[in-house]
Amino acid sequence: MKCIGSYIQAKVEQNTATIHCPDKKCDITLDPVECQPLITNEIFVKLCDRLCESAIAGSNKYYCPYQQCSEFLIDECDGRTNRCKCPRCKRLFCYKCRIPWHAGYYCSESHQRRDSNEKKFGVLVEKMKWTRCPGCGQPIEHAGGCLSVICRYVYHQHRFSCLVTKLQIWYYKFRGVSVN
């Protein structure tokens, strides 16, 4: 009986929800309640959690990216947002790339290592709602006056109003900010 308990524990640690009999000739699914005396309480709770998680069919399921948390989460926004807050640990993360929040940086840039000043600048870019130059990707701000902007890095000229995408317009209107 100890070997079947070890088998169940190994399957649970592999995040398997439905555990079948280890005999290749048998197609019976093991009943968690009947397995309870063979495994520790901790493993039994994990097995029950896996069963509940797998029962939520058709949902976009994932886990909090913070290793100390790893809370099971369900996408209730159908992927319409990138910035998410874990209800358990209350920390921000990016839904799209499933890593801790990379304020002010695109997902494609988010895997680069950053020092504390770069991270603080990213937070400032996000807070100030700056947009990016289409020529070089540097953050730019329209502080007033003419809508024609020349990037100081690549001398790319563009109209600031053309940089505001439909998504940004929706985002700003949702936040009560005028984009005219």
From TrEMBL:
It is an enzyme of class 2 (transferase). This is RBR-type E3 ubiquitin transferase. Residues 1-180 form the RING-type domain. Its cofactor is Zn(2+). It comes from Phtheirospermum japonicum. The keyword Transferase applies. GO terms for biological process: protein ubiquitination. One of its GO terms (molecular function) is zinc ion binding.
